[in-house]
Design goal:
The complex is a heterodimer of chains A (538) and B (223).
Chain A (H helix, E strand, L loop, with lengths): L1 H16 L1 H13 L5 H19 L10 H10 L5 H14 L2 H13 L5 H13 L6 H18 L4 H17 L4 H20 L10 H29 L11 H14 L1 H15 L5 H20 L8 H20 L11 H30 L3 H31 L2 H11 L3 H16 L5 H18 L4 H17 L5 H9 L6 H24 L2 H11 L1
Helix pairs in contact in A: 2-3, 3-17, 4-17, 5-14, 5-17, 6-7, 6-12, 7-8, 7-9, 7-11, 8-9, 8-22, 9-11, 9-21, 9-23, 10-11, 10-20, 10-21, 11-21, 11-23, 11-24, 13-14, 14-15, 14-16, 15-16, 17-20, 18-20, 19-20, 19-21, 21-23
Chain B lengths: L2 H21 L5 H8 L2 H25 L2 H17 L6 H17 L1 H6 L15 H36 L13 H30 L6 H9 L2
Helix pairs in contact in B: 2-8, 3-8, 4-5, 5-8, 7-8
The chains are: A mainly alpha (538), B mainly alpha (223).
Chain lengths: 538, 223
């Protein structure tokens, strides 16, 4: 009898040991209910904190860090880039620049076999970069291009696969918002891992490193997509027929494209370039992107004939370009001991240029407002930003409790016990993330799962940039994989009834194969991800 | 700071505390309504819910513009730094204040507009009644506990900050970190209020008095 009673506390302990695992299982189950993920995360955290308290295995002091975590999200200088990039993306979308870009590209490449598919891939790569939310991109592209492609005789399967895949491309191509979040999380995890292994002079990774690391893998994916589309167009022309365009139309299209294509492309390249070359922080570059998008939108929407319309806005763009040139050739810093006459003159000119730029930005905002678009842009930006950071808050509470219950220890033990050493652990983590990708969006996985597994992996000596890129490509694959992939769900929602669900699934499969090929390539040749950051930052 | 000012701040704090406690029974009225029902009760809930919606919409009408203000401010910072070599700490810090205010004051509004992302594999296809049930369970099981914990834990955290009038680490910074930290209980309060509104609407749907929570939300959020 006494033996029996001795066993009871042991049973309790055993139960308490598995609380952290139970927490994750319960979370996944309850998320399926469909209540907003941010609050479900927090609610599950609190429930298990209460259970842990009653079993005496949880310290309430862990919860006292909750306000500090929220405040940490407020004061994080890197994450300030998120609302600014969202602003840029929403501005490009609402002012229909994204739409125009797609139309122009389609006209430009439409006369080629497979041309429509190719333009969808290119626009997806270019524009999704700044929104970073899978659903939004797939929906936009699906609404815009799927009907056109079907009307031109594209195979429904091939068309929907191309669109779903293009919609997920934006996640991996910088500057996407999820890469900012992932970079921030990986940076913290790396610091933690190095402290735990007792490194004297800890290395750091930055969001810039992750951007640089993701650039080549992203471009490689674009290249592989295009190659596949070209291959289909050549071997099975009936799946991707050319549009009939006569010569005059073609020239006209070319001239129109010359006008509409360069501004957004220059903007995106400038934003990305300034981050990658280390000239600007992501936040600073994002602000340039946001204001640049405002100018482009303003120039498009403003009346062309009036001075305070398009001319004034174009002048502002030119003024900013001259200002840039002037800054790189003259030292314009004010408040120094000695300034030469040329520099003084330069400063005066710079002031005038700034005034012109301000005038142009003002005119842009005015005309966007006049088209009743400014408030929707601000509103949409604010909503997306709030959504992202509320998940951050919920995830913070969840992971505080998870840590309090010893979850970190469990995770690192489980990873250490995985067969095959480091490689085995990485494969296990990738497999788990792939499956979670069926249920959770990129943001949630980045904020909940990555902080739990990354420190353990990084402590085993895995390269942080490589890990981030692998995770990003892996999740992107997950979103494309039938039958659960997020991108396919969203596309089903906007695709015409005539397109059968099975056709969407079939169309996605070749792209899933491409994704897996890319994962294998990056795993086999880590240099694809790590070479560029190494060159830029060392 | 003079003892009188401290006294006043403490009194205001206590007052807020007691107001919150006094109002807290209201939070469970949607559940009571499900048990007892009644025409008058339904009208009361509808009115309270509409009132909360209005408050959060009114707040959002101003706060959403911070997104534009942030873009312009950061752009100005970039020009000042890279062209003229000027750094203003208060300007850089103002970004943090706008950023914090943006997402902490809009938590409730975004719940109203139903933009907090859901795992909607089953939810999307669910009937209005089922959606209402999910929302009711979610509000009482997840949202309200989170907000109450936030208020409970943030109490001492924010009070400490007020007691020393916590300012910036930089002398030329914005000396109002205590206000910034006060956004945390504000976030929880606005969210809990909107959670109540969602619960009330869900309860009305479950008793067959309105047709759907998300339809009501869309209507309420249309600007």
């Amino acid at each position: 009898m006494s033996e029996f009673f001795q066993d009871i506390p042991y049973c309790f302990c055993l139960g308490a040991n598995y609380l952290d695992i139970a927490m994750v299982v319960v979370l996944c189950a309850l998320l399926m209910m469909g209540f907003p993920a941010a609050f479900t995360l927090a609610g599950v955290g609190i429930a298990f904190a209460v259970i842990g308290l009653s079993m005496g295995v949880f310290d309430l002091a862990y919860l006292e860090f909750f306000p500090q975590r929220i405040f940490g999200a407020v004061t994080n200088q890197v994450l300030i880039a998120v609302p600014l990039f969202v602003f840029m993306g929403v501005m490009l979308e609402r002012s229909r620049i994204a739409e125009e870009l797609l139309e122009e590209m389609a006209r430009l490449f439409g006369a080629m076999r497979g041309g429509l598919g190719i333009s969808v891939t290119l626009v997806g790569a270019l524009l999704a970069a700044s929104t970073g939310i899978v659903g939004a991109t797939v929906v936009t592209m699906g609404l815009l291009s799927l009907p056109t492609m079907l009307k031109r005789g594209y195979d429904p399967s091939f068309a929907s696969g191309s669109i779903a895949a293009a919609g997920t491309l934006g996640q991996i191509i910088p500057p996407s918002i999820v890469l900012i979040l992932l970079g921030d999380v990986i940076a913290n995890a790396y610091q933690q891992a190095q402290l735990s292994t007792g490194a004297f002079a800890p290395d750091t990774v930055s969001v810039g490193d992750v951007f640089a690391g993701a650039l080549f893998p992203g471009l490689m994916l674009v290249g592989l997509y295009l190659a596949y589309q070209a291959f289909i167009a050549l071997t099975q022309p009936q799946k991707a027929p050319a549009m009939d365009v006569d010569i005059r139309d073609k020239q006209q299209a070319f001239r129109a494209a010359l006008k509409t294509l360069p501004p957004p492309i220059i903007l995106i390249v400038a934003v990305l370039g300034s981050i990658l070359t280390g000239v600007a922080t992501p936040t600073e570059a994002a602000a340039v992107g946001a204001v640049g998008a405002t100018l482009i939108a303003g120039a498009r929407l403003a009346p062309r004939k009036r001075f305070f319309g398009t001319p004034c806005i174009l002048l502002a763009g030119a003024a900013l370009a001259v200002l840039f040139a002037l800054t790189s050739s003259l030292d314009l810093r004010v408040g120094r001991e000695e300034t030469s006459t040329a520099e003084q003159a330069g400063i005066v000119v710079a002031f005038i240029l700034c005034a012109l730029a301000a005038l142009g930005v003002g005119a842009s905002l005015w005309h966007i407002h006049a088209k009743r678009l400014l408030r929707p842009v601000a509103d949409q930006t604010a909503r997306v930003t709030t959504m992202v950071f509320t998940i951050l808050i919920g995830a913070a509470l969840f992971s505080l409790v998870f840590r309090g219950l010893g979850g970190e220890h469990t995770v690192s033990q489980a990873l250490a016990a995985a067969p095959g050493g480091v490689v085995g652990s990485v494969i296990v983590v990738m497999a788990v993330m792939f499956i979670l990708g069926f249920f959770l969006d990129f943001i949630e996985i980045t904020l909940v799962v990555v902080p739990l597994v990354a420190p353990a992996l990084l402590a085993l000596g895995v390269d942080p940039v490589w890990l981030a890129v692998m995770m990003a490509v892996n999740l992107q694959t997950s979103f494309l994989t039938p039958p659960f992939g997020f991108a396919l769900f969203y596309l089903r929602g906007v695709a015409p009834e005539s397109v059968r669900t099975i056709e969407i699934y079939k169309g996605a499969l070749p792209f899933v194969a491409i994704q897996i090929l890319a994962l294998v390539l990056i795993a086999a040749f880590p240099g694809i991800a790590t070479w560029l950051p190494g060159v830029i930052y060392n | 700071m003079s003892p009188q000012t401290l006294q006043i701040i403490e009194t205001v704090g206590l007052l807020l505390n007691w107001t919150g406690l006094a109002l807290s029974p209201l939070l469970v009225t949607p559940l009571l309504f499900l048990v007892f029902g009644g025409q008058g009760f339904a009208r009361l809930l509808q009115r309270l819910s509409n009132g909360v919606d209005r408050v959060n919409k009114r707040i959002a009408a101003g706060v959403v513009w911070l997104s534009l203000a942030m873009a312009l401010t950061q752009f100005a910072i970039v020009i000042l730094r890279y062209v003229f070599g000027l750094n203003f700490i208060w300007l850089q810090e103002s970004m943090t204040y706008m950023h914090g205010a943006l997402f902490l004051l809009l938590g409730g509004y975004v719940l109203l507009t139903d933009d907090h992302v859901r795992v909607d594999i089953f939810y999307r296809e669910a009937s209005p009644g089922r959606k209402a049930l999910v929302n009711l369970v979610g509000v009482y099981g997840f949202l309200m506990p989170m907000c109450l914990i936030a208020i409970w834990m943030a109490g001492p955290y924010v009070a400490r900050s007020w007691a020393i009038q916590e300012g910036s680490a930089e002398t030329s910074g914005i000396q109002a970190v205590f206000l910034l930290k006060s956004l945390i209980p504000a976030f929880a309060t606005l969210l809990i209020a909107q959670g109540f509104s969602l619960a009330a609407r869900s309860a009305l749907v479950l008793t067959g008095r309105t047709e759907g929570t998300s339809a009501a939300a869309r209507e309420a959020a249309s600007v």
